[in-house]
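Saturday, quiet lab. Running sequence design on the structure tokens for the scaffold JK sent over.
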């Protein structure tokens, strides 16, 4: 199974995005049985698509439609409270604070499904918060 980060879905949804083509090519290969996202990605995609600059911004209704489209071909992976605590501990032990926890939570979902590859446009941050997964973290 592969795992997609929010950054890949945003690039997929935005035709003018600099990473649209490789993200879209990856999306075209996705199936619900072979590709996953974190449940947190659902909120991040909605937030990003509805908060973009005016020329790129989607209406809330269209952002929901985009999320629904993504969920037709992706499996959403949720974390338990214990998973959250373990991720907080792991991140704290690495010495990271603040927003890095969100990348760590995505990676906890990827770890939970033992993702073979983790696709993101934020490779550097992902490898920092999950050095054990560094060889699996790639761009589309």
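Result came back. Writing it out in full:
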């Amino acid at each position: 199974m592969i795992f997609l980060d929010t950054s890949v879905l945003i690039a997929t949804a935005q035709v003018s995005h600099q990473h649209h083509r490789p993200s879209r090519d990856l999306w075209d290969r996705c199936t619900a049985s072979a590709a996953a996202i974190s449940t947190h990605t659902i909120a991040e995609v909605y937030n990003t698509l509805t908060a973009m600059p005016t020329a790129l911004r989607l209406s809330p209704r269209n952002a929901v439609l985009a999320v629904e489209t993504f969920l037709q071909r992706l499996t959403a992976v949720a974390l338990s409270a214990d998973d959250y605590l373990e991720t907080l501990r792991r991140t704290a032990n690495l010495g990271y604070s603040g927003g890095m926890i969100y990348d760590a939570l995505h990676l906890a979902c990827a770890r939970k499904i033992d993702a073979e590859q983790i696709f993101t446009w934020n490779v550097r941050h992902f490898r920092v918060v999950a050095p054990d997964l560094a060889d699996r973290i790639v761009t589309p």
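Notes for JK: The chain has one domain: 2-138. The first helix runs from residue 6 to 13. Ask whether to fix the surface positions before the next round.
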